[in-house]
Write a structure and sequence with these properties.
By secondary structure, this protein is mainly α. Helices cover about 65% and strands about 0% of the residues. The longest helix has 19 residues.
Length: about 250
């Protein structure tokens, strides 16, 4: 991604070190360079199992920039290094720097999500929405929190809003179909699953086929069930909700 394109990027486009460094470099070229140079040392220490040292080294990134995306990288590194209390503290410090910035509440939400504190994560994401954020990724994360808390009604509402924000999001389609399935709304689940599979943009949509076949069969649509069964399928289940935010870094504890 060219620097000229970084002014209005989505949050998820800058969740790696290179993207964050380029974003910082828009206003501080030297700071962006320092961020990129810091990360290999962090990864080297982590690979050697020196997690405390890796977390300490990572915190030096905040001396270069205190943008929320930098806080996010540093806080999630502390999650990876099993420093739970420090990770939450960093998330709260990020919010305290500017409580009116929705991205800072999102950082705190991501930290809580990775720590499997889904109620706290939902509250942080909700605050980000209240402050004006409304991209599909944020709305999907909020829906996932409610799904993981067992509130599939609220999950379906937020997944629906995520889908409205990005009508071709395979993640949103998959998650809302799962919520409808758990709510017993089979006809809605079928409609969403069919729409998801019709996109043919994501091989992961094959996860939907087993549930789709079973739902067809329950409604007496046996020919369609058999056709779905003939397609390669993995077991039915949520995709993103089985992953941690840190998966985007390629480093899951």
């Amino acid at each position: 991604m060219e620097l000229a394109e970084m002014g209005s990027v989505r949050w998820e486009d800058v969740d790696d070190v290179e993207g964050v460094a380029r974003l910082v470099a828009l206003q501080d070229p030297e700071g962006g360079r320092l961020l990129e140079e810091c990360w290999p040392e962090v990864m080297s220490l982590e690979d050697m199992g020196l997690y405390g040292e890796a977390a300490y080294e990572c915190r030096k990134m905040l001396e270069v920039s205190e943008r929320p995306q930098v806080y996010r990288l540093v806080a999630l590194e502390h999650v990876v290094c099993a420093e739970r209390a420090r990770a939450v503290l960093l998330g709260r410090e990020c919010v305290d720097d500017d409580p009116s910035d929705p991205d800072r509440h999102r950082v705190l939400g991501d930290v809580h999500f990775d720590l499997e504190c889904y109620g706290d994560a939902a509250r942080a994401y909700q605050r980000a929405v209240e402050l004006g954020a409304g991209d599909a990724g944020l709305l999907l994360s909020l829906g996932l929190c409610h799904a993981l808390l067992g509130d599939y009604g609220r999950a379906a509402v937020w997944h629906g809003r995520a889908l409205a924000a990005d009508p071709e999001s395979e993640d949103s389609l998959h998650e809302i179909s799962w919520a409808y399935h758990r709510l017993g709304c089979s006809s809605k689940a079928i409609a969403v699953l069919e729409r998801s599979l019709a996109l043919e943009a994501d091989p992961g949509c094959a996860e939907c086929r087993g549930r789709l076949a079973a739902t067809y069969r329950a409604h007496g649509r046996h020919a369609e069930a058999e056709a779905a069964d003939r397609q390669p399928a993995r077991p039915w289940g949520r995709r993103r909700s089985e992953q941690k935010v840190t998966a985007g870094r390629g480093r899951v504890p």
